[in-house]
């Protein structure tokens, strides 16, 4: 199949493809999503094939108006309403009891459905002129999520109908996923809205253990996506936990001409390998914004190993940590 590259003035073409059951990659403020009509089970099933995604990993349904939610969930509890008022549109996904109108394919058979109201204007327009859209990140399953239309093409050219080009994604990593379907609200995946921000609105909120720890063999994932290898480039990712001089010394001792470092601005001159800057030190928003594109860059440059700084586990740092430990196969090198 030929994959069309569509511009912002071709939203109607994208909407037609979606209405007739096709697949369109769309920009959002987090990462690009691979969208299909959320109420068309066959179209949704095609997303899983195009990505090579395990069928037991459910998808997020994207809306562009609050009133669309009533057709998708059985309940919209008060805590979810408050979060919606403060953080929607934006990088927050809420898991709620699923309405029977949502095909089983979307939720991989679960009794819940994940809902998000993205803030990207093109995503909003596309949903407004088509329908609620089921969309996972638009990468091949296991790879870093795409933050530009070119990244989507690199993974999906020939596998989907079209890519709607909306430029570079602002946040750079995926939305925060929180379940409000039962008991105390629980963050299953940290992202663009931090745990601290969520607590300031609804109070007690648990962070699921799987956010920072590998799952045991017999444990069930609250969020099925958390059990798979994820966000990994072809290159091996080495996550180094220590101060900057220890980071530099480790690379001096073990780097080679096939290694790259994801480095802070200004650190290049002190590192003895290829450098891919990820922003200012202590700027976790910049690290989040640049992480996936930097991992893809390392592959483009033919690197076999990538050294990365270990971020702090708070604020946006927790979201970066959650991605980068998975990219590193949960292996942290303590310096
Ligand atoms: O920012 C984002 O969330 C992006 C953009 C495109 O919106 N989407 C995204 O989708 O990251 P995806 O499919 O790559 O990640 C969705 C995560 C997965 O870990 C999945 O297991 C979890 O959300 N999830 C979806 N529905 C769920 C449900 N009903 N219960 C538990 N976890 C769910
Ligand atoms: Mg994904």
Quickly describe the structure:
This protein is an alpha/beta fold. It has helices at residues 11-19, 41-51, 78-87, 104-107, 121-129, 149-156, 195-202, 244-254, 284-300, 316-327, and strands at residues 4-6, 24-26, 33-37, 60-62, 92-97, 112-116, 133-134, 162-164, 176-179, 186-189, 206-207, 236-241, 259-263, 274-277, 305-309, 332-334. It has two domains: 4-211, DHBP synthase (Alpha-Beta Complex), CATH 3.90.870; 236-334, Threonylcarbamoyl-AMP synthase, C-terminal domain (Rossmann fold, 3-Layer(aba) Sandwich), CATH 3.40.50.11030.
Structural overview:
- There is one protein chain.
- The chain has helices at residues 11-19, 41-51, 78-87, 104-107, 121-129, 149-156, 195-202, 244-254, 284-300, 316-327, and strands spanning 4-6, 24-26, 33-37, 60-62, 92-97, 112-116, 133-134, 162-164, 176-179, 186-189, 206-207, 236-241, 259-263, 274-277, 305-309, 332-334.
- It has 335 residues and is an alpha/beta fold.
- The chain folds into two domains: 4-211, Alpha-Beta Complex (DHBP synthase); 236-334, Threonylcarbamoyl-AMP synthase, C-terminal domain (Rossmann fold, 3-Layer(aba) Sandwich).
- An eleven-stranded mixed sheet has the order 1-8-2-3-7-4-6-5-9-10-11, sandwiched between helices. Strands 14-13-15-12-16 form a five-stranded parallel sheet, sandwiched between helices.
- A hairpin with a 6-residue loop joins strand 2 and strand 3 (33-37).
- Helix 1 (11-19) packs across helix 5 (121-129) and helix 9 (284-300) packs parallel to helix 10.
- The radius of gyration is 19 Å and the shape is globular.
- Bound molecules: threonylcarbamoyladenylate and magnesium ion.
- Residues 136-137, 145 line the site of magnesium ion (MG).
């Amino acid at each position: 199949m030929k994959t069309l590259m569509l511009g912002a003035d071709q939203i109607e073409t994208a909407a037609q493809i979606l209405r007739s059951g096709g697949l369109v990659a769309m920009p959002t403020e987090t990462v690009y999503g691979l969208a299909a009509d959320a109420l068309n089970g066959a179209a949704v099933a095609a997303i899983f094939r195009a990505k090579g995604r395990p069928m037991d990993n459910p998808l997020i349904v994207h809306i562009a108006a609050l009133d669309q939610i009533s057709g998708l969930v059985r309940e919209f509890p008060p805590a979810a309403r408050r979060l919606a008022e403060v953080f929607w549109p934006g990088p927050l996904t809420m898991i709620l009891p699923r309405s029977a109108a949502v095909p089983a394919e979307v939720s991989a058979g679960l009794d819940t459905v994940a809902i998000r109201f993205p803030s990207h204007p093109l995503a909003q327009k596309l949903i407004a002129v088509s329908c609620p859209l089921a969309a996972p990140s638009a990468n091949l399953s296991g790879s870093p999520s795409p933050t530009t239309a070119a990244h989507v093409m690199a993974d999906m050219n020939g596998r989907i109908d079209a890519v709607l080009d909306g430029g570079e994604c602002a946040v750079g990593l995926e939305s925060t996923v929180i379940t409000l379907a039962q008991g105390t609200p629980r963050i299953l995946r940290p992202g663009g809205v931090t745990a601290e921000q969520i607590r300031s609105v609804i109070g007690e909120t648990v962070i699921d253990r799987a956010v920072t720890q590998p799952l045991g063999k017999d444990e069930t994932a609250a969020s099925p996506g958390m059990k798979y290898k994820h966000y990994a480039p072809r290159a091996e990712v080495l996550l180094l936990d220590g101060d900057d001089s220890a980071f530099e010394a480790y690379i001096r001792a073990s780097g080679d001409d096939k290694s790259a470092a994801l480095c802070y601005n200004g650190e290049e001159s002190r590192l003895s390998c290829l450098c891919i800057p990820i922003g200012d030190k202590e700027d976790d928003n910049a690290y989040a914004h640049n992480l996936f594109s930097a991992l893809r860059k390392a592959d483009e440059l033919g690197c076999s190993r990538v050294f990365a700084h270990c971020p702090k586990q708070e604020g946006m740092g927790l979201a970066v940590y959650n991605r980068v430990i998975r990219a590193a196969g949960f292996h942290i090198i303590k310096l």
